[in-house]
Amino acid sequence: MIGMRRALRGPARLMGIFFLCWLSTGSGRVGQMPIRPQNIIVALTPVQLAPEQQGTQTTGSLAFLQGYALHAASEDFGGWSAMSASRQGLRLISDAGAVLDLPFPNGQNVTARLSELPKGCGNHWNKAEHDAEATTRDPQTGRWWVTLERLNLICRVDAHGHVTSIARAAMASWATPLGAESMVRLADGRFLILAEGAPDSTSAAMPLLIYDRDPIDPKAQLKRLSFAAPPGFRPADATQLPDGRILILLRDFEAPITWRTRLVVVSQDQLVAGATVSGQEIARLEAPMLTDNFEAVAVTQEKRRTIIWLASDDNFWPLQQSYLLKFALED
Q: Which residues, 6 or more positions from 7, have their beta carbon under 8 angstroms from its beta carbon?
């Protein structure tokens, strides 16, 4: 979802209106057909973070390692809004309900597995009810979870593909389409869920929930907090770093087509009931760097290096790209 920071005027306003209309129609895809599970070839076109910068390209605490524009001959390829990592590669989930199991990039092409969210997680015939915006996983059990933003629904998928869903009362008032945008299963089993926007216009802080266990469990206990983003920015995704800190991906949009990205970290000792947390910035992406609608973040480790992956949602629009960027965290 996209929030505009200020009123638009003249040609910029018209372009902004056109852009949002395109998103609500071309990317809406109401009446979409089910996605047949299939292997697809994903082409990897190398990109640079800052083409004019010589030597090691950095932004804040991140050192750029690799970047790719992703392309595939499938109308269901794109819209990547959530991502998780495993030893085998990256799982990207689109806001139209597609699931892409992508091996770690190697060479010019990779063979990936394209499927869709299992039955029982949203409405497969309506993109607005299949709008996945966050995912997280348990590496021990193989379970994975998804949030559907417009329904404020949490789905859990077990290792055999069985789905259990719940609409938590604590999320019932979250605004559509600014609902559950980020979810992290922490290493200790707690879950963090973050809304993209405030439920009403009286607060600038976004609701932040922490469950003491799997939120599908009706016995899960809840702590309510708030998250305050920098002006104009909204949370897009989150994950946990190996040192325990929470990494939150923020983005901002201005018409006609200007994107800005921030990455902030929140320490676990800030996660106190009733608190408003804001995070410490560790990196940013903005012009003249490569920019787009970065909506997904994941973390892996290579030996002792912490690796940060960012993926962008192209909104199924030809003026945007599906990017996958790889960084090393140097702080």
A: 13
CA dist., res. 209 & res. 183, Å (int): 9
What values do phi and psi take at 171, rounded to 5?
A: -105, 0
Radius of gyration of the chain (CA): 18
Task: Tell me the pLDDT tens digit for each residue of 53-109.
Answer: 777 799 999 999 999 999 999 999 999 999 999 999 999 999 999 999 999 998 899
DSSP 8-state symbol, 230: P
8 class by beta-carbon count within 10 Å (0-12 exposed, 13-18 middle, 19+ buried):
middle
Residues facing residue 248 across a β-bridge: 238, 264
H or E element at residue 135: strand 132-137
Report the 10 Å Cβ neighbour count for 216: 17
Q: Of 76, 148, 65, nearest to 324 (Cα)?
A: 65
First-last CA distance in the chain: 30
Domains of the chain with bracketed CATH: 10-329 (2.115.10)
> pTM for the complete prediction?
0.90
